[in-house]
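Minutes, project huddle
Topic: does the predicted pose make sense with uridine 5'-triphosphate bound?
PN asked that the exact inputs be recorded in the minutes so nobody has to dig through chat later. Recorded below.
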Amino acid sequence: MKTVVISLGGSILIPELESHRIREYVPVLRAIAEKCQLYVVVGGGGEARRYIEVSRALGIDEGTSDEIGILITRLNATLLIAALGKDAYPVVAETHNEAKKFAESGRIVIMGGITPGQTTDAVAAVLAERVGASVFINATSVDGAYDKDPNKFSDAKRFETLTPAQLLEIVGKTALSAGSNNVLDVIAARIVERSRIPLVVLDGRDPKNLSNAILSGKFVGTIVSESGKNPFPV
Ligand code: UTP
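Predicted holo structure (tokens), as shared on screen:
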């Protein structure tokens, strides 16, 4: 059975607590998990952003603000686990080793953040490497990788394919600070380059995009690999 790692951005799963998309994601993740061993790394979303803003306003350092962000990602992960019921391993994995161990259950394994100075994309990239994933998916709130933030710049250019080196060049231009916004953090981009695992950046605002991609190979997004070949269906 193939292994798939999804970085499920908090900005799409739980943009704000009241407008969460967990109900729509549960059947989609269940359908995917019937075809592969699935790992999902959940982001912090709006709640993490709000906590980090308050933390900064209090003059708290970036590392501690990151720790607060991590707690929120784990809270979001706990909510997703509970919603998935018996289909998910009942505990949030707090290390990559733990995630591998939990996968022996055959259930969906869920993680949040693990260490300051990065985002859940980096957690997911390392996880993909550790578990020998056949594909690493970054489900995010844009329809692919751009040369700059498309929400801020109207002339941002979208890519159908990128090599890992090109991705690294793009993300290298953005500063790393608690709660910072980029298609992928620099650490994640480096791991993608060294692991040679194909990365697909796809629009997760509609949960069906995710299942269509994995199960039938149809998606709108950006493939990041040396070959640029569509890695789906798994
Ligand atoms: P996210 O991974 O959710 O970052 O972690 P994000 O860029 O806000 O992603 P989306 O929008 O949810 O998709 C939230 C914050 O938690 C801290 C960082 O401060 C990050 O910005 N964090 C997360 C860490 O410090 N380490 C981790 O391993 C994960």
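Observations noted during the meeting:
- Residues 9-11, 43-45, 48, 52, 66, 69-70, 73, 113-120, 123, 178-179, 181 surround uridine 5'-triphosphate (CB under 6 Å).
- Residues 39 and 197 are 15 Å apart (CA to CA).
No decisions taken; revisit at the next huddle.
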